[in-house]
Amino acid sequence: MTGSYTEHQKLLKEIQLEIQKTFKDSRTFPLYTGTVQTTFGYLSVGQPGWPDLLCVLLYKSQLVAIAIEIKTGKAVLSKEQKHFKKMWEEIHGLFIVGRTPDQVVTEIKGRYVDV
Predict the structure, then answer these.
(1) Rounded Cα distance, 24 and 14, in Å
(2) Domain limits at 18?
(3) How far is Cα 54 from Cα 19, in angstroms, rounded to an integer?
(4) What is the CATH number of the domain that holds 30?
(5) Number of domains in the chain
(6) DSSP, residue by residue, 27-61
(7) What DSSP element (H or E) covers 26?
(8) Total-model pTM
C-alpha cells in the first residue's frame, strides 16, 4: 500500500521547507493535480503527470526549474508522470522523485554543485 494523502501533503511541506532553508535564492510552487469534489460534482484540477512541486532557484546568475514528484511508501511514477519526466529531462531539466527532504536537497546539490 502507498502512503495516504495526509502523509503525502506532510512530506510535500517538509520538502518545501528544507529547500527554502537550504537554498536562500529559491522558491517552491505546489502544482495541485487530481479530482476535487464540489457541490456541482467532480472537477479535474491540473494536468495529469505534472509534478507535485516546482522549485525555481538561482544558479550562476541563471534561474533553473526543478520538477519534484513526491512519493511516500513504495509508490512509483504513473504512466503520465513517466511521460512528463522524459519530456522534462529531454530539455535538460532536473526531475526528482522525492521521498525525503534530505534526499531531495542532496540531488539538487549533486546537479548544481556550488549552490
Answers:
(1) 16
(2) 5-111
(3) 11
(4) 3.40.1350.10
(5) 1
(6) EEEE---EEEEETTEEEEES-TT--SEEEEEEETT
(7) strand 26-30
(8) 0.89
